[in-house]
């Protein structure tokens, strides 16, 4: 298959269009961060975390199943 000059020019134009779109969206994203999202991110990072509550561990499922199986097997 022979690639003609028309095809090459079309592909180059497509590449320019894609590059322009990527650059535009990148700049828009950076601008959003500068305008306000950056402050929101910083607030989330600096926000004090909730204290972790340590609760007494109850008998786990594995232990319960083990007791249940041993009880049944004894009968």
Could you explain the architecture of this structure?
There is one protein chain. With 75 residues, the chain is an all-alpha fold. The chain has a domain at 1-45. The chain has helices spanning 5-46, 61-74. The radius of gyration is 31 Å and the shape is elongated. The termini are far apart.
Which SSEs are present, and which pair or pack?
Layout: H1 5-46, H2 61-74
Question: How would you concisely characterize the structure shown here?
Answer:
The protein has 75 residues and is mostly helical.
Descriptive terms for the model:
75% helix, 75 residues, 2 helices, mainly alpha, single chain
Give unreliable regions as ranges: none
Helix content: over 70%
The average pLDDT is: 81
Question: Which structural class is indicated by helix and strand composition?
Answer: mainly alpha
Count of DSSP H/I helices: 2
């Amino acid at each position: 298959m022979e690639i003609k000059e028309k095809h090459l020019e079309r592909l180059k134009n497509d590449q320019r269009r894609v590059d322009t779109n990527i650059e535009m969206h990148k700049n828009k994203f950076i601008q959003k961060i500068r305008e306000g999202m950056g402050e929101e991110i910083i607030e989330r990072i600096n926000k004090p975390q909730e204290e972790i509550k340590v609760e007494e561990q109850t008998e786990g499922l594995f232990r319960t199943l083990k007791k249940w199986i041993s009880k049944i097997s004894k009968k």
